[in-house]
Amino acid sequence: MTIDTSVTKNRNGFGKIGLVLLLLAIILAITVSVYMLFFIPDPLVTGTDGFKILSTDNTVTLKGENLKSLEISIYQEGKITDLLKDSTHVKEKTYALQIKPKDLKLSNGRAIVIVKAKAGIFKKVRYEIESVIDTVPPSLEVIRAPSIVNTGSGGFALLRAKDADFVYVKLGERVFTAFKVGSEIDLETEPAPGYGVEPYSAESNSSRKVANTYYVFFPAPFDSKDGDVFYAIAEDTAGNRKINALPTRINIKGSKTSSIEIGDSFINTVVAPMLNEMNLPDPASSFKKVNEEFRQQSQDKIIEVAGNTKSEILWDGRFLQLKNSKVMATYGDERTYFYQGENISSSVHLGYDLASYANAPVGAANSGIVTLSEDLGIYGNTVIVDHGMGLMSLYSHLSTILVEPGQEVNKGQLIGKTGSTGLAGGDHLHFGILIHGYEVSTL
After folding, report:
1. Which of the four pLDDT bands, split at 50, 70 and 90, describes residue 206?
2. Is the per-residue pLDDT at 204 higher than 70?
3. What's the confidence (pLDDT) of residue 188?
4. 283: helix, coil or strand?
5. Residue 431: band (very low, low, confident or very high) from pLDDT cuts 50, 70, 90
6. Residue 388 and residue 306 in contact, taking contact as beta carbons nearer than 8 Å
7. In angstroms, rounded to a whole number, what is the distance separating the alpha carbons of residues 422 and 381?
8. Cα separations (Å) of 144 from 156, 157, 247, 302, 376?
9. Across 213-241, average pLDDT
10. What is the secondary structure of 167-229 as a DSSP string?
């Protein structure tokens, strides 16, 4: 019998190739297993602090790294509620979890959020975050507020809030902080209108029902619009809030308008030095830059400084005007600037220009603490004095500054001398009253 040796050789050849492939597969599997066991990075989940306090509606943003799977649940009173189950194989992934405790039938009080993440076969982490669920908003009452304020003026409101960590008045995106005054009021023995009285229960897991009184000064900025609404807001650290509209209507007050011709002398002696230049090829654009860009930078700085106000009243009685001074320009003057007959820029004068004699002594209009004493762009050498509760006074274009930030000053105490620094055409004092950083009329 004849044996076909070529077929046998082929079979042996295929068998050897199969054996090699099998060995390679085994080596690869061992390599992958070793990598998965020893070299794959540990799973990592960040952003879990967002679970510590949960209010009515929350969005908790988590970032996961080296994840194979991620599970999140919340445990309360023997019940486990799943928040997320995700199987994935990615290096990085961001999760935005919307959590509404009431929809999940969770109760106010303590809970534990459990986060479990895996990477590879054996690597895993577990986080347990102690959480407080608080879906009860603060209480808020508007006790007193003006019925009307003019644009460019200010108002005062008296508020009462319970279980609030932040109380403020808001106009659009502008926020005006309210300040706590006096001691707490026990609403069980001293009920306030609008609150009602509920019996205290030791089992209610809540403190006695006390409220605080708040003062808030708020401006109606010059650019306020008809129909703008002031809202009083009480907020807690969980993010719950109560909103009441103030009964305060804004009256749009008419303003004076004026046209001012800008000459080359003013450009060369005032504008050029502010730009740190001696020759300006385009005088009109240079003035526009200083009047608009520098002005906005200066006003932004004032708003920033206004956040550093004391929570108590520092002033005493009426505010003083610069001695022996004459009013040269008033609040709300809408100015249009011309260069060689062409309209090049505009501004609104948000203060009072007071003139006496050159380098006249400037006293503090009232007692307070200096919060700023520096060159402030278009305002030149400037001092800002904090009188507490968001009320400040501003003194600009000074030739000399005689006080420093943090210094306490008394009413009438010398703080500087008049001058013409900044965007000023002559020696005078630009005096302004600020409420939370916004200049209002002194009248």
Report:
1. very low
2. no
3. 46
4. helix
5. very high
6. no
7. 7
8. 8, 5, 9, 29, 37
9. 95
10. EEEEETTEEEE-EEEEEEEETTTS--TTT------GGG-----EEEEEEEEEEE-TT--TT--
Domains of the chain, by residue range, sit at: 44-133, 139-251, 257-440
Mean pLDDT on 7-18 = 60
Q: How many CB atoms lie within 10 A of CB 169?
A: 27
pLDDT above 80: residue 13: no
pLDDT tens-digit readout, 126-176: 999 999 999 999 999 999 999 999 999 999 999 999 999 999 999 999 999
Say what the pLDDT of residue 200 is.
Answer: 28
CATH homologous superfamily of 257-440 equals Glucose Permease (Domain IIA) (2.70.70.10)
CATH number (2.102.10.10, 3.40.1550.10, 2.40.70.10, 2.70.50.50) of 44-133 reads 2.70.50.50
The residues, any chain, with a CB within 8 Å of residue 117's CB and separated by 6 or more, are 43, 44, 45, 64, 67, 69, 70, 71, 124, 125, 126
Distance CA 135, CA 55 (A): 5
195 contacts: CB under 8 Å, gap ≥ 6: 139, 141, 162, 187, 209, 211
Sign of the CA dihedral with 308 first, then 314, 319, and 323 last = negative
- Which numeric CATH code is attached to 139-251? 2.60.40.10
Specify the amino acid at residue 336.
T
Torsion from C-alpha of 396, 398, 402, 407, nearest 10 degrees: 10
